[in-house]
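Re: weekly structure request thread

Next one in the queue (301 aa):
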Amino acid sequence: MIAQERLSEQFEAHRRHLLAAAYRMLGSLSEAEDAVQEGWLRLCRAETEAIENLGGWLTRVVSRVCLDMLRSRKSRREEPLDTHPAETYPLTEDRGWPDPEREALMAESVGFALLVVLDRLKPAERVTFVLHDIFGMPFAEIAQVAGKSEAAVRKLASRARRRVTGTAPRDSADLAGMRRLVDAFIAAARAGDFDALIAMLDPDVTLRDDTDGGERITRGAEALARRICGRALAAQTAVVDGVIGAVAAPLGRLAYALKFDIRGGKIAAVERIADPARLAALDLHVPFVQAPSRYSAISRR
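Done, posted below.
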């Protein structure tokens, strides 16, 4: 019993890191919890005396589980609220099983836009990108996870990086400035700050919206500001078809995309895309990926 309790405490020290990595690989909190739980079960069955680096061992095991889950996934679906057998998994007082509010907080912390783009990668690309570019795992260890050579996973990482971050928008000489404007626009829309929205819009701005299969056009700064004021709650900046834009993806599921035409420091035109066929065909990138932690800090534990 004492040995089991000690093993549980050691595992618990790594759980947040494991869940963070698994969630970025899977895009589903319930599936990420399942992958981490499987890591715990495999640890219980392992010869723990032979494990020199528990953090690194757990990261590799959970990553392999995530890769298998991605490969077996038939299609994206809404995740049900799962019932987990609490007696098989170490819990802490602040731990709760997946619920919509908790998943929304997790998705927001990771970035809705990043989840959308990651979901378009092939399984091995996604796992490699998350492990190397976000968590800093060496390619030699990723090769063990993916079952490929180190040279092969380097190519996977390079290909995934191009698909995630892309290149600078084709109409942008000042990507950082355009991003600040779009970030401010989204923040003002969420906050319902009508005056701030007006200040960022060209007086003759137009909004084209393909909602309901047709095209709705809104003309003028005041009309557009009234329409979006208090909205855009799930929107985040992204690059959409080579121009600065945004995506709205509650829980990482793409609902609509925005493309902005910026002239003279003002938003001159906005296109809102919600048609599923058009959304699926969009070229989406997130050139603003931030790493939550470094693998080296975990692997030394």
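Residues 75-97, 294-301 have pLDDT under 50 and may be disordered. The CA atoms of residues 129 and 158 lie 8 Å apart.
Next request, please.
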